[in-house]
Amino acid sequence: MNYTKTLTAVTLLLCSATANATLMMEISDGTNTTTISDNGIGDSASIDGAIVFIGSVGEWFFNVSTGSALASTEYVDSLDINTNNTSFIATGGTGTLTIKLTDTGYTHTHGNFISSVGGTTDGTVNFETWIGTSAFEESTLLYSSGDLQGDPLAFSATGSGSINTIDPYSMTLVATIEHTAGVNETTFDFSTRIPEPTSIALLGLGLLGLGFASRRKSTATA
Q1: Residue 11 falls within a domain, yes or no?
Q2: pLDDT tens-digit map of 91-132
Q3: Which of 61, 129, 191, 193 could tie 142 with a disulfide, CB 3.0–4.6 Å?
Q4: Which domain CATH number covers 118?
């Protein structure tokens, strides 16, 4: 019997997605603000649980920003921003673009989270994950990358910790991009994910069982 295939199938069944309430994205340069709801005006995505914005925001003339809350077989809840943003700022000026992605209705109040980001930038970037009780609420800070710069262009950061709150709660990703004068570009993928504790425990037990079965087989062969 192939224990690895059996364990994988069980894990896939246990890690099914939990749909949340209101996925929304906000993109702002401080003067111009665009807010897009899942399946609402400005959303180019054709599936539930994902938002795609294509357009300009002030001096940020090229923006393709995707936000998703699609759970996977590994994570019970997740938020992810994947974006490409290009600005043309007048000589002597600076510009800041803030991208927020929020979802509500989370119920996994205790456990761990994993945040990660990677990309390239001609400027300075900062990433944060917050939890609260309503959309876009920044009440409790879960993760902060601090200011990151390309070295010379690429950057990356990761972080993890625990969640201890009450349900239902909201989660909001905040990405801040700062560019100086001229044409500059920033691209990145930023996510915060929450593994399913029960699935992790069962996966550990399954791996332990595989090890025990392999040990018995080796003993019998000897």
Answers
A1: no
A2: 999 999 999 999 999 988 888 999 999 999 999 999 999 999
A3: 129
A4: 2.60.120
